[in-house]
Amino acid sequence: MTERQYPDMWADPDDDPRTAIPPASGELGVLSEYLDRYRMTFEMKCDGLDAEQLARRSVPPSTMSLLGLLRHLAKVEHSWFRRVLEGRPELGRLYWSEDDRDLDFNGAVADDEVVAEAWASWRREVAHGQEVLRATTDLGAHVDVHGEPAEIRDIVVHLVEEYARHVGHADLLRECIDGRTGQ
Predict the structure, then answer these.
(1) What segment(s) does the record annotate as region Disordered (predicted)?
(2) How many beta carbons lie within 10 A of that of residue 53, not counting itself?
(3) Which of 174, 181, 180 is nearest to 46 (CA)?
(4) Whole-number Å distance between alpha carbons of 108 and 72
């Protein structure tokens, strides 16, 4: 194993896997590229942690943890792409129930099976979201969001914003775990 030049960063700048994402052009391409970079950044911030570290809560009484964020982002991907953009509300909600609307965070416990299931769910939902965006031809098309029309463009920008916010949370959570800082 080679020693890292920047051990406090996620990746040495010359080896950052996000640079392998080819530059995009056009509105949909650029939005998709930003979303994919944030997805990859979030995954990098969770890399190498065990179940206890991923489930470690931030500051009481908050239930926020990296594992909770992973489950939350899987829920967000599922909700926007499957339920809203594909118009399939009958699929139900991922990591949510009437009894526990914060199940994504409250169910984020230090258990290897919970971690494996969360990663599988997130990866499945990300792959599905990428497929939906590849098939999108009109960002100006309208879909129903809670009884109101919204453009697909607005939803994709919201997803970029959602990831950007939670990647910032992940920076702080990871720094508390092992001192690594974001880039």
Answers:
(1) 1-21
(2) 19
(3) 174
(4) 10
115: left (phi over 0), alpha (psi -120 to 50) or beta: alpha
Give the C-alpha separation, 80 to 129, whole Å: 9
Q: Which two tokens stand for residue 52?
A: 């206890």
Digit-coded pLDDT (tens) for 75-131:
999 999 999 999 998 888 899 999 999 999 999 999 999 999 999 999 999 999 999
- Chain-centroid distance, C-alpha 25: 23
User: Residue holding tokens 């991922």?
Assistant: 94
Give the count of alpha carbons within 13 A of 62, CB side only: 12
pTM comes to: 0.90
Pair 116, 125: CB distance under 8 Å = no
Show the 3-state SS of 110-172.
Answer: CCHHHHHHHHHHHHHHHHHHHHHHHHCCCCCCEEEECCEEEEHHHHHHHHHHHHHHHHHHHHH
